[in-house]
Amino acid sequence: MAIRLSIQSIETNPDALDTLRRAYARFKSVPDERGFDFFASLHGLALPIWCEHGSPLFLPWHRAYLYYYELALQTRLGARFTETDPAEPEFAEIGLPWWDWASDHSHDVGLPNSYAEDLPGGDGNPLRQTVVGAALDGVQLTGIWSQELTALVRAQLPGVITDTDPPVTLRDPDPPDDLPRQSTLDSVIMTQSTYLGFNNSLEQVHGDVHVWVGGAMSQVPTAAYDPIFWSHHAMIDRLWYIWQNSQFGRNPPPDLMNTVLAPFPMTVAQVLDIDRLNYDYAVTAIA
Ligand SMILES: [Cu+2]
After folding, report:
1. Total domain count for the chain?
2. From the CA of 229, how far away is ligand 1's center (Å)?
3. Could you tell me the distance, in angstroms and rounded to a whole number, from the CA of residue 280 to the centre of ligand 1?
4. 71-108, pLDDT tens digit by residue?
5. Which of 106, 133, 136, 158 has its CA 20 to 30 A from that of 197?
6. Ligand 1 centroid to residue 130 C-alpha, Å
């Protein structure tokens, strides 16, 4: 059982942060469908784009997405979305940390320091940026990052990647206090009384955070290459989990339940109970 902690709590534990960074560095070096680049490419480029936005499947699709991503980070993912024994037991219980952008701390500092600071040596801080598509070179799984695709992204989506070769993800965060507030979550989101209302209103606030981070995060084709994407979506998933267990929580409409969350071999009904997905959220933000 992986426990997903807040980033703020991981920042109080140097060993946990070091393990997370080493797990990410390893994950980013994997050149196949168990690697970071492959997962990032499922959300956006290279084509096809699989993610569900502006859809009642927004929450369940991203829950399945994070589920397989976490297995891959834990070195538990086999070929074709199967689960195997961990290749590296040291990483086997890592939970994907959530970024509580509504907290007082985030309204003070903006992006978490652990995901923003530059580190000397090697590839630097693997939580800060990503060399886009590097590990996917020549691996035809969802398409490849060609020179032409990189040129197209630079022309159509200015400011999302650097002009260097290979390209690196960029950010352009707004002032910290412009992040969505806990009071907004409490009054507008967490009291929604229908699944569709909750899904849609949470997706909107989620979009505000993508735009707040700016750069790669502000565009669907490149968002998942920024490592903060995954902790932002862990926060979204956690809010859904909290709402599900509140007096307001409701299941999705019956006609959605058997929808397959492609490309993942899982239906909406199969992602509703996170106990069955073998992860949990720490109860407090600072453990
Ligand atoms: Cu998103």
Report:
1. 1
2. 7
3. 20
4. 999 999 998 899 999 999 999 999 999 999 999 999 99
5. 106
6. 17
The Cα 162–Cα 19 span in angstroms is 28
> Does a structural domain hold residue 99?
yes
Cα 97 from Cα 154, distance rounded (Å) = 30
CA 208 / ligand 1 centre spacing (Å): 10
Give me ligand 1 centre to Cα 169, in Å.
Answer: 16
Q: What is the CA(193)–ligand 1 centre distance, in A?
A: 23
Query: In the numeric block, which tokens belong to residue 122?
Result: 């090697």
286, part of any domain: no
Q: What is the mean pLDDT of residues 200-217?
A: 97
Amino acid found at 234: A
Task: Determine the 3-state secondary structure of 279 from DSSP.
Answer: strand
Using CA atoms, how far apart are residues 185 and 182, in angstroms rounded to an integer? Answer: 5
Within-domain flag for 93: yes
CATH number of the domain enclosing 11: 1.10.1280.10
| Segment 138-184, tens digit of pLDDT | 554 455 677 888 888 999 999 999 998 888 999 999 999 999 999 99
